[in-house]
Amino acid sequence: MKTSFLFLGFVFLIAACEPPKANQAEPQVSTDVINVPATASDKPLEAGMGAQMTFVEESHDFGKITQGEKVSYSFVFKNTGNADLVISNASASCGCTVPNYPKTPVKPGQESKIDVVFDSSGKSGLVSKTVTLVTNCMPSTKQLTISTTVMVPEEE
Q1: CB burial class (10 A; 0-12, 13-18, 19+) of residue 138?
Q2: Distance of CA 152 to CAs 97, 101, 129, 135, 155, Å?
Q3: Most distant CA pair in the chain: distance in Å?
Q4: What is the rounded CA–CA span in Å between residue 131 and residue 6?
Q5: Are 135 and 51 a contacting pair, CB within 8 Å?
Q6: Short-list 59, 68, 74, 56, CA closest to 116
Q7: Burial (CB count within 10 angstroms: exposed 0-12, middle 13-18, buried 19+), residue 38
Q8: Whole-structure pTM value
Q9: Which fold would CATH assign to domain 46-148?
Q10: Model confidence over 63-84: pLDDT tens digits?
Q11: Is residue 12 helix, strand or coil?
């Protein structure tokens, strides 16, 4: 019996580690776009060099919302650097918060946005959530914050 479970576990592990099939191509980003010169040497990055992410605002308060309501906000940013800006990941501090970010490089001088949707189902009171971006900027991570007060509707 133990041998059967070990065998099944081994088969599952092997199947989970298989590389993607040829027909399941994932979008690829060139490594030269992701390269940050300051991380490859001990020299500090000169001002204006590389990608720079400048936000209009880095936090947003939705105010009071009703429990169960879904609200969204777009964090607008501009690449104020002189190289393509690549966002390799955006992760939220909770499953109730979903970020959507550009999957293609943002050219110097170009504006783009990070859309964040918050689902207040099961939440109450003051709520604050973060979205952490991983980029090719220096520093390589950036945090955005949303907050709200979730009001629980009175039962009749």
Answers
A1: middle
A2: 19, 31, 19, 37, 9
A3: 66
A4: 39
A5: yes
A6: 74
A7: middle
A8: 0.70
A9: Immunoglobulin-like (2.60.40)
A10: 999 999 999 999 999 999 999 9
A11: helix
